[in-house]
Amino acid sequence: MEAVPARARVYIACATAAALICLLPPPDAGTDWPALTLLAALYAGCERVARSRFVGMSSHPAGTFYPVLLAAAFLLPAPAAALVAVPGALLSHVERRPVALRRIWRAAQLVLGVWTAARVHQVLGGRDAVVTGDCPHLLGPAGAAVLAFCLVLALLDGGRLAVGAGAPPTPLRQWGSVPVRRAWRGLVARSLAPIAVHGLAGLMMAVLWRSPYGPVAALLVLLPMCVSWWAFAQYHRERAAHQATIRALVQAVDIKDGYTRGHSERVGQASMMIARELGMDDERVEVLRFAGILHDVGKLGVPTRLLRKDGPLTPEERRVIELHPEYGHEMVRGIGFLGEARAAVLHHHERLDGSGYPYGLMGRQIPESARVVAVADAFDAMTSTRSYSRARPVAVALAELERCAGSQFDPVMVAALVDAVGRAGWCPAVTADDAHTSRVPPPGAPASSRPGARR
């Protein structure tokens, strides 16, 4: 069960208190109760299906039925519109404990978002435009309301991530393991586009609701949204299958090479940090994370006795180990979704001066993805305890990377990692060699002067 820090509980309590205030005063006699009841029931049903049938995707902006909530914001006074979200949030399926706290948080977040959107829409005269069907004047207030809704959700989510900064990281990094300076980064950019699409659907629902065709016609707007939601769910399932495949490969490597248990995940995390520091888009960042995770998958083709050998390797044994990039490339060559990650698996041991393997590529001949993973791999190798070397402090490892920049490593990638670690620190989700950190190198086993020489 995921522990929730005390500060996060206080934060949720404050958000809940604010949500209760938004629900007051209660809807007056002029409230369209049939519309409120129907919208609340519709949202509750859709939310329940979304969160129970498509586990793991419901937290994504495209994985829930915001059109119903935004239609309520366009149709009803703010307290009544906010009330629409409560039953669905409190009855929705929750994947992780504590269930009650997560439901309360979800309800408070949606109440605040919908209330704000409804108030903005009303102040800008949007409700009158919906009633009259004045199309040109509908878009401005509706767009402002959608933006307000998105900003409130992002603000609250960022606060949830920041309230426990400095506390021990949690498994999903959901309850306050993100530094304050990074808590809100990218939240609006990631959610604005899908929420804007939902807002357009909600506006169409509201206009049709107030038209002579009535609520039945308004509900038809949800049909294309259901189709797109189903397509998104299929994509999510396919992506989950891809990740399961990767996890299986990595677990096989970890079992075979016990000294590097967790190494692949940490290299993936460091590769992701470098990619983000370089300003790569989210899709490419994800590909480079896969590249880091899979970079050593070729070790499955290397005899286990060589991977676990405590003493120095003979030249023949080293040549066998140096075949693992080619083995790995053969294993992942047919996995289309990996993209440039496949090149990283093949070339992550190439060096800028041409002294690397398997092909002795130089400089820009080495794919960019491989140059990223090479730095991430060497960094984790130096900061982890191996059978042949002790773990070095992070600062020492970074200094060694800077010393070798230009000859062994791409200086741009090294600088990106130094900046990323300097700003965010190095707190890998998988701790360094949990089962082996206490093991020291045997007498006579030399530590190479080159970073991560035996990898």
UniProtKB/TrEMBL annotation:
It holds the Pfam family HD_5. PROSITE patterns: HD (PS51831), HD_GYP (PS51832). Residues 238-433 form the HD-GYP domain. Residues 260-382 form the HD domain. InterPro entries: Cyclic_di-GMP/3'3'-cGAMP_PDE, HD/PDEase_dom, HD_domain, HD_GYP_dom, HDIG_dom. Residues 433-455 are annotated as: Disordered. Keywords: Membrane, Transmembrane, Transmembrane helix. Residues 446-455 have a biased composition (Low complexity). The chain crosses the membrane at residues 65-92, 104-124, 144-167, 187-209, 215-233. This is Metal-dependent phosphohydrolase.
